[in-house]
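note to self: the first set is below, dont mix up w the second
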Amino acid sequence: MTKKHKLRPVRLAGALLAASLLLTACFDEGAPQLVASGKARMEKKEYKAAAIDFKNALQKDSTQVEARFLLGKALLETGDVQGAWVELSKAREAGFNNDELVPVMAAALILRGENDKFIAEYADVQLTAPQRQAELKAALAIAYGGKGKYVQARAAAEAALQADPNNIVAQLAIAQLLMVSGDKTGALAQVDKTLKAHPESSRPWVAKADLLQASGSEPADVMAAYREALKLDKGDMQAHLGVIQLLQRQRDFDGMQKQLEELEKVQPGGLQGRYFKTVLAFERRDLKTAFELSQQLLKVAPQNPRFLQLAGMIEYERGGYLQAVAHLGKALANSPTPNTVRVLMARAQLRAGDPRKALSFVQPLLDNDNPAPADVYSVAADAYLQMGNSEAAKRMYTKAVKINPGDTRGRTALALADLSEGRGDRALAELKILAGADSGIEADVVMAMAHLRSNRLDEAVAVVDGIEKKQPGKPIAAFLRGRIEQLRGHRDKARAGYEESVKRSAAYLPAATALAAMDYEEGKPAAAVGRYEKVVAADPQSVEATMGLISAKARNGAKAEETRSQLEAAIKRFPEVEAPRLGLVSHLLEIGDAKGALQAANDGVSRFPDNPFLYEALGVAESTTGNFNQAAQSFSKMAALQPNSVQPLMRMEELQEARKDIPAAIVQLRKVLSMKPDHLPAQVRLITLLSRTGKSAEALALAKTVQTQSPNEPQGWTFEGDLLASQGKWPGAIAALRTSFAKRPAEDTAIKLHRALLSGGQPAEAAKLEAEWLAKQGDSPLFNFYLGDQAMARNDFERAELRYRKVVDAQPGNAVALNNLGWLLHRAGKPGALDMVEKALALAPNTPAVIDTAAEIQAATGHLDKALPLQKRAVELNPEQPMHRLHLAQYLIKNGQKVEARTELQRLAALGSNFSQQQEVQKLLASL
């Protein structure tokens, strides 16, 4: 199929605008000299100075129509299209000569991006001067060509040649039309003919360069033709622009800068020069400058599709996705590349979190009888994926790859689908091929993550080495190295990897987030705040970084109202993004302000009535306040917006559990699995509920189903081991957990297997597993915490202290480990107990168990004035925990508050056999 090429826009300074000006008006004293001066400046291409002369002439006599026309023409040459249009329109209203006026107005309309208006107003206009009629018809040929109406374009060009056989614009329009029709030889022959007819003109050389480029000639030959044009006319705009665009394609940004400087010399402040300065800033990723320049362009020509499209691209990269859609929507009608605009609009809406609107932008192309370009199917696939319709997404990716087998992104997505469907070997083989053939890293990253997920760390290292070679100095390889070392239990090496990642790019959020998580574990929330502050400083438009910073400040002790104010400020700053609103709802629920959460969720739904995540937040808020029926309605609306997603059904299942309707919850989970048979969260929950309701055989059968669905993944065997362990069937539990551990030696599985070996009477095997795990990952906090709990349970307090110290060394911010270690030190009479517990209390000020320990130590040291408020707080936070109430009664008695103590003890006595410490309760009551 012959590739079609759009006709180039008309050249302002070329034959279309060339006209000898007639002096038809009488000026008062001084005006003729000003007009003459302006004309002389126009000849020298000093358009700004000429415009000043014409404005001064009009100040002397505003009725002088020719001065008005000349001012419009000068303004057009300076790039002030809007100002030019105003002046030219006034000249037309005053009856200025059409032969002079129409070609200039034609150029203004085309530069304004109003090809349709130009065609509508001037297609049937007849000018008296043959030369002007030829220029008008040539401009119409360009306008028709820009709309893809090549039959009308050819007719207009031929009419131009009939009016003036020597019209260079029409001659070159014919050449372009021949090229569009696929006649490259005829097109070049027409250009050569024009070169002979107009040896003094630069225009045929520009046309030749364009045709050479369109026919795939060597860039050096194209550049040589443009340079020939500039030898003949240093001010040839199209030649300058041709050179600039060629340098842009070659990524020679320094060359672009130099050529723009040359263009500025011959046309200071010109509109096209300003446009490509914006392009250059965008290419260099100087988004701040690019944005500022794009706004200036839109002030001059707010309807120009090229300017709007560029502004949309800039907004997209800046993260202003809805503003990008607004610009691109205005550009769409007159854009020479409407498919590109639609795809970018769709991608912007996807980034804004609205896959339905994204799909609507490309749907007309999907509904067309002709196959759409590959990127259309690709963005449609992304939309379906975000909507939860994985089957439709897969169909779209398949079409994209069929049209373009080199579509690495589509092939990567299909490989990812294979991974999720359990075809890991096939997926990894495809990813390896893609990674080897593609200079990009998308396939490499997916392959690395697959290896990490399966704990194949050596294989992951090899993939990351390849990523580093492809993108040396970029942050992602260093980040993945950090992740590998973290999985190996090498905390210092992991930190070094993450630090290198943020050193390479201060705005790289994943590495900053990983470091912040380590800061939290080490009890350094202020350090986490600092990390997010650096990311926000490097990328102020990052909503995710802003939300991370707010969360970090909250964890560092910011008051609830401060956090609320920060979230509300984020909502104002990012009004088109739902994340801050969702964060506000979550925060208000967390601090117990259910009414405020409900209001915030309702406000969000009002602002984003088609956003399923806000209906989800609203449903959660309603459920928290006990409005179960309203919550069900909200989750139903969420489901309507995500008809192929199982998440709304999972929320409905949570609602059924909140209502304590377990049979209904089980029915709901079965619905989920009928839609998505391999949905692991639903399988986990259903296995749990079946086991809880005595349907162990059915639960075990489901675990076996998971094993069949994902034979290379450990989850199915973990489920089986958990079920058999809950029934005390230790040999079977041990066998299943061994299989799971062999498939992926995860820490939580190691703990479960160790516990099963002990319970199953195999202490030697448990000790062997413990020694092997600690030899490899001796600093593993989770495993050490488990061992500490085991030691506590058997009253091996010295060993428990040793293990909890290991946890605190690795995670100084682990409040529970600090609390347990503090209690052990207190019990043993060792120093540092209160210090440990106060650290835990600072980290978890609302945790009843920690408060209870702090009160116990204060009471033991005689500080009842401190112990009593603490213990009352523990009871207030967890009134159903009888031990906290017993401790409170004991402290009240010690403090001489017998009446209050009796009240607490009587409440405990009412529990009867449900409280194991009734003997102590009765003893205390008897003492009062």
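second set (the one i keep forgetting abt)
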Amino acid sequence: MAITDKIYVKNHRQLASQLEVSFPKSAFSGATLDLLFQGELEKLDEANRERVLDFAEDFLDCSCQSNPYCGHPERKFIRYLLDLRARNLDPESIVDVMTDDYMLYAYPGDIYSFLDDAVRNLEAVEEIARVDGREKQAQLAAQRKHELL
């Protein structure tokens, strides 16, 4: 299961009530993305609307014909999580920042597992690149791995 499947909308009930529509808690579910992409966000109070629009701007801004189902929102969000970790934030702090930035939350254990998987994948990339004689790619993978540790 991808980490984006474990990212949830904080104050979900409040937002659903303000929008007068039901939608899943999962931030990256199809119905939630539809709502953000085409919904009547002017019904939200100013503070909620600002964060929802920030999320839409930062992750749904793509020119693909299949937007928001093209996979770019999820990849952008994963990059966001990795950037937060590269700034030496621990999983609890990452959850706090994404809650402050976008009214999203996740369980710190899920963030920890995601980061651990990312490190393991980078170790595999590094090793395969070395075996294949691609030292530059191996060094890049090692550098990215160290950013996450």
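remember for set 2: The chain has seven helices and two strands.
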